[in-house]
Amino acid sequence: MNHIKRISVIGAIWILLTLLLLAYLLQVANMVAYGGAITAGELLAFVEANGYEATDVWDYCMRYIWPYWLVICCVFVGLLYLAWRLFIRGTRFQRIVYSAIVALLFIPLCFPLQHTIFHETMCVVHEIHMIRSHYNDNKEFVYNAKCTDIPEGKEIYVLAIGESLRYKNLSLNGEYERETTPLLKQQTNLVLYSDYYANATLTQHAMPMLLTPSTPETFEEHFRYKTIASAYHEAGFKTALVSHRAQLMNNGYHDYLAKDFDTTIFVVHDSLIAPALAILIEQNHKLFVVTNYLGNHMFYTNRTEDCLVWRPDYNADPNSKSDSLFMNAYDNSVLYTDKILNNEIEVLKRVEGICAWLFVSDHGEYICPHISGHGHTYHPAKDEYHVPLIVWYSEKYAEAYPKKVSNLMHHKDEPVCVDHVFWSVLDMANINVENQKNRASLFEEKLIRGERLILLPDGKTIMQL
Ligand SMILES: [Zn+2]
Q1: Partner of 313 for a Cys bridge, out of 50, 65, 203, 329, CB 3.0 to 4.6 A?
Q2: Single pTM value for the model
C-alpha cells in the first residue's frame, strides 16, 4: 500500500512539474514575442486552434523562440537536479534551501500580478462555460423583422467579414505608398470609411458583436440574440454563410453563430468564396450572405504566388534577415485580399438587380520587425483596432435609394465602430426590427454615435478608445 502511495505522490509531482514547465514555455514564448504575460485570448486560441493556425504558430516558435525554450529547459532541469541532490543528501538547512528553490520556480508564473496565468486560465474556463451553458439560449428569440420596401426583381445583400486586415496597409486609403489594393481602387460605387474601429482584438469576441446587437458592455448578452441572418430570414430573405473552414464559425465552440443560416458552406480556400456566392445568387431571388475569409491571419501565408511582390517575405524567404520580413509578407497577403474582395464585387456586378456589400475586418494586426499578431496584450495598438469598413452598391441600388447612398458618403470620415455594423447591414436592405431605439446606421441622415470601446482579451475588461 505504501508502495502504491509513494508511486502516486511521485506521479503527481511529475505531472505538476511537467505542467509547470509547459506553462513556463508558453509564458516565455509570449514574453519574447509580445513583451507581456500570456492572455486569456491566447490560451483560448490554443484550446480552439485549427490546423492552419497551430502550424503557423509552431513554425514561428521554432524559428525565433526555440533558443529561449532550450535555456529554460536546461535551467529548469538543472535546478530540479540540484534541489533533488540537496533533498537526498542535505542537512535540514539544505532541505529548506531545496523548498525555497522549488517555490522560486513558481514566482515568474505570477508576473505581472494583475494577469497571472491562473487568472487568464480562469477567464478561459469562464468563456467555455458560458458558451456551453448558453448555447441554446436564443431558441425562442425573434427580431420581428420587416422590410419597409420590397422592390421588384432580385435583391442581394452581403456582409463580408475579413480577418486581421488593418486600415493603414490599404493603398485604397490614398496614403499607403505600396499599391496593395489596385483592383478595389478601380471599382466605382465603393466607399471606404477612414475612421472605423473594431470592438475587440480577438476573433472570438469580434464575431458575436458583428453578427448581433451586442456591444463590449453587453458582450455576454449575445447568447440571447439570434444572429443577423435570422432578422433577414424573418424579413423574407434566404440566408447563407460562406466561410473559410479554418474560421471561427466552423469550430466546435463557436458553431452556434452559424446555426441561424438557411445554408452554410465551408470552403478550403478564400478563392472559392466568390464562386460559391455566384451559385447562391443564381439559385435565389432575395438573398443575404455572410462571407468570412481566412484573410490576413498571421503569419500571412494566405496568398498565391502572383501576389509575392514585396521581398524578402517571411514565408517565401525564410533565411533572410530584414526588418520588413513580416511587413512584406503582410502586404503580399493584402494584395491577395484585394483580389478576393474584388472577385466578390465582380460577381455582384453581374447581377441585374439591387445589390449592396458591406465589408469589415474583425480586428487589425500589430506588426513589428520581429513580432506580429493581435489580441496578445491588454494595451492594444491602434493598428489592432483601426480597420477598414468598405461599402459597395450596385447602380440599381443607387437609383432605388439615392438618399441612403448620399448619407453613406456623407458619414465616411466620421468616427464609427462595430456598433454601426449590425444596424447598417439591416438598414442597407430596409429592414426594421422590433427594438431598434439604438439603431446606429451609416445609411441614416443623422448618425447616432456612442463611445468607442474595445473588449480586451479576458472577455470582460473594457478599454475606451
Ligand atoms: Zn480574427
Answers
A1: 329
A2: 0.91
Distance in angstroms (rounded) separating the CA atoms of residues 150 and 153: 9
How many angstroms separate the CA atoms of 303 and 333, rounded?
Answer: 5
The three grid cell numbers given for residue 376, joined into one nine-digit string? 496578445
CA of 223 to the centre of ligand 1 (A): 19
Question: How many whole angstroms from 319 Cα to the centroid of ligand 1?
Answer: 28
Buried b (16+ CB within 10 A) or exposed e, 352-363: ebbbbbbbbbbb
Distance CA 418, CA 246 (A): 23
pLDDT tens profile 100-152: 777 777 666 655 556 677 888 889 999 999 999 998 899 999 999 999 998 99
Nearest-10 crossing angle of helices 40-48, 203-211: 90
Q: Are 76 and 85 in contact (CB under 8 A)?
A: no
CATH classification of 138-464, choosing from 1.10.260.40, 3.40.720.10, 2.102.10.10, 3.10.20.740? Answer: 3.40.720.10
**Ligand 1 centroid – CA 25 distance (Å):** 24
